[in-house]
């Protein structure tokens, strides 16, 4: 039996979860090819009912790799993917990697300016983009290195009946088609390019485990985005850690719902790599839509659902109202934001399965901690360290000093999933990667005696007022508990004298009328005086990222304006 000395969390692991994993030696290309052999006839992808087997996926990746090689893509080159979740995204991802090139993921809903900034930074010369986004990429080419744009038409991946239906001369159908695809003059066609390519020769050079696989941009909520450099080994290690964390999974039998965007670190690992590792069928959705998800449940019931709390809440409510059976979902893994205990209760009542919270960041591929997939889970915490992962809780002003157990401090993590640094940003790399391979997370946490971690707040979002530290999450929780408050976001606003003041943006429940002064008065019953917002503003909604996380930087800008 593995000793728990120095790692008290091991005693909370679910049965069968190892303390250490064997990090695979191969690349992500090897991962896909292994699954294509083991699960050749199994559906790898499901897109609105159109399926692609693992054998067919492997074949498509080979042809797409040859097509990209014909465009001049070589090992080490960066290739931009600007795509929603769709079969072409999966094929392009693995095709780029097959050449030893580097995938650079981008949000297809970004503005022209946002895309141009990232494309200029990564230096990609070839971009595979959703045709709806192609004009923004083409328009910014004078400020980037992009010389070739390949446009993807999502509708070509749909089942034949749905493609034919999109040709009907009805206003509603035209609007649906226009939202999915538009002409992209100046761009090459992905479908024609791949269809006209011969399979890549088997002796074409292959990537090694230590080669860079991915540049994943991060930091957009706190400053200029920067590319986290992740190797094949980083990503394979995290997929293997995830597989070990859920010992009840059945290789070749699971159905994973891809409601998370593949261009986000969370969705990329849980859907693009983890799903392939276990030979699961990945059901893809270009965006989260309750109606589309519940329709898919009737067609191909899910067994494993990685998502964010609002998705679980909305699906559980809708399934109850419409009588849709979700009891096939045995496991749910929540991340990216705090998981409320009441969401856990509701979801587990509706499904009979387990819903646990995890923790991670782009720089760690991204998962480092998780709640045990067992009765030992502890709602309200982000769980315990993954296998082969070490953690420390330190004084953020002196990272050589560990704080006393139960005292707030900055979380440091170390493991095979931790990145090598930021793309061409040595100073920013040095600020987060400490000697010994420790990654500064920037999160203030408290660790219990048995190793469970609770996130208190982000260091960069800490508000310092009158010399006191105010954690925004604590104030937000207090505001959400008040009558009539649906949601809240708390930030620090700079005062004329240079100090900070606590400010809050709140959203009212339907039909409720909120009085800012009354809210401040009520908050004093739950918060020390210095924590009570000096200013409360009622807003219609809070700005959120594509996966639903509140963007406090934008909240601050709105309140300052």
Automatic annotation (TrEMBL):
CDD domains, sorted: FC-FACS_FadD_like (cd05936)
All residue ranges annotated as the AMP-binding enzyme C-terminal domain in the record: 474-549
Annotated AMP-dependent synthetase/ligase domain residues: 32-423
Classification via SUPFAM superfamilies: Acetyl-CoA synthetase-like (SSF56801)
Record-level Gene Ontology MF annotations: ligase activity
Superkingdom classification of source: Bacteria
A Pfam family the protein falls into: AMP-binding_C
Keywords assigned: Ligase
Record protein name field: Long-chain-fatty-acid--CoA ligase
